[in-house]
Structures are given as structure tokens and as C-alpha cells.
Design brief:
alpha/beta; 4-stranded parallel β-sheet; 7-stranded mixed β-sheet; Universal stress protein family protein; UspA; 11 strands; 8 helices; 36% helix; Rossmann fold; Rossmann-like_a/b/a_fold
Length: 296
């Protein structure tokens, strides 16, 4: 499922969603939320397009999606109301929700309000298009090495296997005192024990997945909380895909949301996938019928 709104990145967003549908041999649902009847606090200040404009947008994007692969089954849905709430409800019927970064990412690198809301409320994994879709590079997954993060690793390993890419598993450990906000001092040994414990936890967590996906080359990377933001930013520029879980703290999602795209004049980075806690692979039956649905 892809949420479209007529922005400049819309065609590229549909291209990405269509490529994902073709990759997984799944139907594609194009959803546009028309704000015509919405009168809430988040209604835009500009002119509201007519319902005919919204339907024409869906028709054009449907034609574009079929250019990627004519065999893709495409359905459209035109909804009325608040985009964040309606896309959250619709995500319960999808195996993947594709959304875009704000158009003016150079000036405001953080995600838009709708994407930020969906990051914590989507029922299915959410892919954020950030201006580029690299064809090479590893799949990078940020893992907490906790049981609730199994869904994130499942998605990352399955994706790396599907596209024959190496996987880099990144695990963050906290320096003593950093989580409580107290001044952090470097002890004798420079956190050797904490780092070793993090490396063991990561290795133990990955052991079952490497056995399940023996053909996927896996690199382990352990970093502390101070270095994590830079590590995530570098991964966005060097990988084909970055995968993270929203988790109980949402720290990885926050880092991805605020990662700078305009550094050194480079605006575009690889897509990001956020996996909700407890997610497991399913195939929603609600997306199998072609055609258009108009919801009010």
C-alpha cells in the first residue's frame, strides 16, 4: 500500500511501491486522502483540490504503477478526512505501507507530521522514501537484541535473502549513566566490559537467524549511544535499505526521523523501513481485488 498526496515526489514514490509489489509478487493499493470534508486543526491552508482532481491523480498514478510491471494488480482507494488516522487504519490491511519524506527535505530534514505519526502507529512495516533507491549496498538493520525485536530481524534477513544482499546488523549499547542523563565518565578500560557484553548479546540474537538464512553474509557492528546517530546517518548514505524497529523506546526511529539529508549538499538517502513491535509476515486478503473504492 502506498499513500500519495500529489507532492513532487509522488511519481517516484509510486515507482518504489510498484517495484516492491513486483518484488514480492503482491497486489498494490494506491491510497489518497482527500481533505475536502476534513475541518480539523491539521487542515492545510492552501486551496483544496476538487474530488475530481483527486480521482484524476489516482488514475495517473495507476497508469504509472503499471509501467513498472503490467502484471501488477493495482487498486485505488479515495478516502476523506485526516491522512494520519486514515492511513493508520488502512495499514492493518497491508503487508507494507510506503510513504514519502517531505518535499523540502533540504530545508527541513525531519519527516513530515503524517509520516512521523505513522512511524509509531502503523500496523505493518512502513517504508519511507527518502529520494533515492540504490541498487547495491548492504541491508542495514538496527537491532535491540531483545525478543520483541525479532520481527525487525525477520524482515531484514528475509529482504537481504530476497535481493541477494549482505546484511549489517547494528546494535547500540548505552554508556553507564547516559540513559539517566548523568554526566558520563570514561572508566578504566574504556567500557571494554560493556562492549563485550553487547557483542555477546548481538551474536546470540543473530545465531538463530544466520542458521535460518545461511546464504546471507552478516557483519556485526556494535556502537555506543554517542556514536549511534553518526552510524545511522552513514548507513543511510551507504546502504540500499535501512531497517529498524519502533520498539519500546523508539530511539532508532527518532534517529532515522532526524537524520540529516542535506549534509555536504547530498539530499537523497536510501529508503527506511520501520517494523512495529510484534509484527510477523502475513498476507492480507483485503488487497486482492482490483478496482477502486471510495470511502467517506
Amino acid at each position: 500500500m502506498v499513500g500519495v498526496n500529489g507532492s513532487r515526489s509522488g511519481p517516484a514514490l509510486v515507482d518504489l511501491a510498484a517495484a516492491e509489489a513486483a518484488l514480492y509478487r503482491a497486489p498494490l493499493l494506491l491510497v489518497h486522502v482527500w481533505p475536502g470534508r476534513y475541518t480539523g486543526a491539521y487542515r492545510g491552508r492552501g486551496a483544496v483540490p476538487s474530488r475530481a482532481d483527486a480521482e484524476r491523480l489516482l488514475d495517473l498514478l495507476t497508469s504509472r504503477a503499471r509501467l513498472t510491471d503490467p502484471r501488477i494488480r493495482v487498486r485505488t482507494e479515495l478516502l476523506d478526512g485526516n491522512a494520519a488516522n486514515l492511513l493508520t487504519q488502512a495499514s492493518a490491511r497491508a503487508r507494507l505501507l510506503v510513504v514519502g519524506h517531505r518535499d523540502d527535505a533540504f530545508a527541513r530534514p525531519a519527516w513530515g507530521s503524517t509520516t512521523a505519526y505513522l512511524a509509531y502507529h502503523s500496523s505493518c512495516p512502513m517504508m519511507v522514501y527518502r529520494g533515492s533507491v540504490p541498487a547495491d549496498g548492504p541491508v542495514v538493520v538496527a537491532t535491540s537484541a531483545r525478543p520483541e525485536g525479532e520481527g525487525t530481524l525477520a524482515y531484514a534477513f528475509a529482504r537481504a535473502s530476497l535481493v541477494s544482499a549482505p546484511l549489517v546488523a547494528v546494535h547500540m549499547w548505552m554508556r553507564p549513566g547516559a540513559q539517566e542523563g548523568t554526566p558520563v565518565t570514561v572508566p578504566k578500560g574504556a567500557y571494554a566490559e560493556e562492549r563485550a557484553a553487547a557483542e555477546r548479546a548481538l551474536a546470540e540474537t543473530l545465531s538463530a537467524w544466520t542458521a535460518r538464512f545461511p546464504a546471507v553474509p552478516v557483519d556485526h557492528l556494535v556502537v555506543n549511544d554517542f556514536d549511534m546517530a553518526f552510524t545511522i546517518e552513514r548507513a543511510l548514505h551507504r546502504s540500499r535499505l535501512v531497517v529498524a524497529g519502533t520498539g519500546r523506546s523508539g530511539s532508532f526511529a527518532e534517529l532515522l526521523c532526524s537524520a540529516r539529508q542535506s549534509r555536504a549538499g547530498v539530499r537523497a538517502t536510501s529508503p527506511t523501513v520501520l517494523v512495529p513491535p510484534g509484527w510477523s509476515e502475513t498476507a492480507p486478503a483485503a488487497m486482492t481485488k482490483p478496482g477502486r473504492t471510495a470511502a467517506h
